[in-house]
Specification:
With 409 residues, the protein is α+β, with helices and mostly antiparallel strands. It has helices at residues 16-19, 43-52, 72-79, 126-131, 157-165, 209-220, 230-239, 292-301, 314-322; strands spanning 2-4, 28-31, 34-37, 55-58, 63-68, 92-98, 104-114, 117-122, 139-142, 147-153, 177-182, 185-190, 199-205, 226-227, 305-312, 339-343, 346-357, 362-370, 379-386, 389-398. The two termini are 41 Å apart.
Length: 409
């Protein structure tokens, strides 16, 4: 087993020379070792572009790992809960990956680039993959810093892609890949996205990032294309009901980091795929995989928790501010730490990814609740903090996602 990791200090993405001049408010956010623009023009404007027109989003910091060699399929099968042997070349699937106890280490996308090469994208996972690669004839190569990702999202994304390539894209199915030339450079285009809308993720060599950006922005002029920052992306994924490690669950099974130091974890916030509402992404009929025995046992015993949507009364949040003589500020950016959810004076779970949704015009969140309280219409309270003082805020359980998903249409 060989591994190749490109560790480095902070660097810019392949698109920074184009995004930096557009960052008029000079609002950056750290994403791993990168900084990306947090807000270009404003959340409402950028989210509207995603939902109604078309937007471009720099997602280059997303970790990318190529797995190649004779055992690439067998190893990929072992570390994910899906059956990679069923994947066709140029197909993409979503999957969690778990530790031996069935707790989610992370989740992300798996791309089958050819018969003996897969790519996994998601949270930084190089150490985890190395940790489990013994006995497999594979090479793991981190390509995070060699390739940029420009996400093209929105109802008009296909029209922009057709204008940029002079090709018909109506025949490419959701979660499929096509390699094309855009702006004179080779681009891997996956029909995918993290917003719930029709969209495409354009993966390009780092030195070709500017050529791709310029070609897409030129092609998109006629369709009202706008750049969208991380805040709009984060809000869009919450509206679409999509979780991320850290804010929504504690990574399980991470015994060591890259240099072997122990990592403290919060066991209360660890989750199985069932807890996250992702039980449909477990293939029990395929080969053995990490956590399979524990997940089978959990399935047989019955799921104790589930993930649901929460609509939170924003006016009550405002009242908590005015009650302390403060100007009300109702969740200006998503809250990434968990808040306690109560029912009849008893803790029944936690709320995560709490955000103001311009689409819903309300505060929304994910509720990780005891199963008996997951029925839509159930009234609960969320313990909200203003400064150091907590107060109960009414909320109602609703189905996920919060919006109609159009990405596969």
């Amino acid at each position: 087993m060989n591994t190749d990791s490109n560790n480095s200090s902070f660097r810019g993405t392949p698109f920074n020379s184009r995004t930096e001049p557009l960052n008029l408010f000079v609002r950056w956010i750290a994403w791993d070792i990168y900084h990306v623009v947090d807000v270009f023009s404003g959340l409402d404007d950028e989210l509207k572009a995603i939902r109604e027109e078309v937007a471009v989003i720099d997602m280059s910091p997303l970790s990318k790992f190529d797995i190649s060699g004779p055992d690439a399929q067998r190893f990929t099968n072992y570390v994910i809960t899906r059956d990679a042997s069923r994947m066709e070349v140029n197909q993409v699937i979503y999957t969690p990956w778990c530790d031996h106890n069935g707790k989610v280490v992370s989740d992300g996308m798996v791309f089958r680039m050819n018969e003996d090469r897969f790519r996994i994208t998601g949270d930084p996972s190089h150490g985890w993959l190395k940790q489990n690669a013994g006995g497999f004839d594979i090479t793991i190569t981190e390509v995070t810093h060699e390739r940029g990702i420009l996400s093209l999202q929105g109802p008009k994304s296909r029209e922009v892609l057709e204008a940029a390539t002079a090709e018909d894209w109506s025949d490419i199915k959701f979660s499929r890949i096509r390699v094309v030339k855009i702006g004179g450079v080779e681009v891997e285009v996956a029909r995918q996205g993290f917003t719930g809308e029709r969209g495409y993720e354009l993966c390009v060599a780092k030195d070709d990032g500017v050529a791709l950006w310029d070609a897409i922005m030129e092609a998109g002029k006629a369709f009202g294309i706008k750049p969208a920052g991380y805040l709009a992306l984060d809000t869009a994924r919450i509206e679409a009901g999509l979780v991320i490690p850290g804010p929504d669950f504690t990574n399980g099974g991470v015994e060591t980091d890259a240099i072997g130091a122990p990592i403290e974890v919060d066991s209360e916030n660890m989750a199985s795929p069932f807890d996250l509402g992702a039980g449909q992404f477990i293939d029990f009929e395929g080969d053995d995989f990490l956590g399979k025995a524990a997940l089978l046992k959990e399935k047989e015993a019955g799921v104790r928790r589930n993930r649901t949507g929460l609509l939170i009364e924003w006016q009550m949040i405002a009242d908590l501010y005015t009650g302390q003589g403060l100007a009300p500020v109702v969740v200006p950016t998503p809250i990434w730490y968990p808040l306690t959810v109560m029912k009849d004076g008893r803790k029944i779970g936690r709320a995560t990814s709490i955000a103001w949704s311009p689409t819903i015009q309300n505060v929304i969140a994910f509720g990780h609740l005891e199963k008996e309280y997951c029925e839509p219409g159930t009234d609960v309270t969320v313990e909200f903090y203003v400064k150091d003082k907590a107060g109960p805020v009414n909320a109602r359980v609703v189905d996920l996602p919060f919006i109609d998903l159009r990405r596969a249409r």
